[in-house]
Amino acid sequence: MMSGPATEPEEDGGRLLEIWGDTVDSRHTIWAIALGVGLTVPLYLGAELLFSRLVDDATVAGTYALLVGLVGCLLAGFVGALLFAPKRVVTEHAPTEESRRAAMDAVEADYGPLGDPSELSEPVRSELRALGLYDDLLAQHRRREEREAP
User: Fold this and answer.
1) Phi, psi values for residue 93, rounded to 5°
2) Residue 15 near residue 8, CB atoms below 8 Å
3) How far apart are CA 133 and CA 114, in angstroms?
4) Residue range 1-26, pLDDT digits in tens
5) Given this model, what pLDDT does residue 5 score?
6) Contacts of 48 (CB under 8 A, 6+ apart)
7) Residue 113 and residue 142: Cα distance in Å, rounded?
8) pLDDT given for residue 42 in this prediction
9) Which of 7, 39, 70, 91 is 20 to 30 A from 135, alpha carbon to alpha carbon?
10) Containing H/E element for 2?
11) Taking a C-beta distance cutoff of 8 angstroms, is the pair 91, 43 a contact?
12) CB contact at 8 A, 17 and 24
């Protein structure tokens, strides 16, 4: 499943594509495909020829050749991963109080009130504290109570 070109920065020369939800360089994609075909097909055909001479049963020879072809696919994937680095640009930023509040509001808008986190069992509260979410849930619960209070 391939969709149209992704939004490209000017420095990429229009080469970036979005394939299966991932951003890829079209040149590297073509080279990776050529690498896969270039490694896998000769390995498969060579193994088929070799095993057809070594094994009496053609089905077994074909099965072994297919296995060698699959190993070629894995090898091509490994080599492609070494040659062509990901094109993702990951931007990290520390969440602000406002962004955390907006996220909690969005969750409540989608799923309804989250409830009072102090009513949860201790193991769940401990896990929420470890994830840094307990205080946010508690603050969200208090804000909702203030809004609903007469």
Assistant:
1) -150, 150
2) yes
3) 12
4) 444 444 444 455 678 888 887 778 88
5) 43
6) 61, 62, 65
7) 11
8) 96
9) 91
10) strand 2-5
11) no
12) yes
Q: CA 27 → CA 68, 85, 87, distances in Å?
A: 27, 12, 12
Q: What is the rounded average pLDDT for all residues in the chain?
A: 85
The tokens describing 111, both together, are 């799923």
Report the C-alpha gap between 144 and 104 in whole angstroms: 11
| 115 φ/ψ sector (left φ>0, alpha ψ -120 to 50, else beta) | left
User: Which DSSP string corresponds to 24-85?
Assistant: EEHHHHHHHHHHHHHHHHHHHHHHHHHHHHH-S-HHHHHHHHHHHHHHHHHHHHHHHHHHS-
For residues 59-78, one letter each, b for 16 or more C-beta atoms within 10 angstroms of the residue's C-beta and e for the rest, the string is eebbebbeebbeebeeebee
Residue 13 tokens, joined: 């020369």
Q: Residues 6 or more apart from 69 whose CB is under 8 A from it?
A: 40, 41, 43, 44, 47
- Asked if residues 17 and 30 have their Cβ atoms less than 8 Å apart, the reply is no
User: Could you tell me the pTM of the whole model?
Assistant: 0.51
pLDDT, tens digit, for every residue of 74-112?
Answer: 999 999 989 988 777 777 778 788 888 888 888 888 988
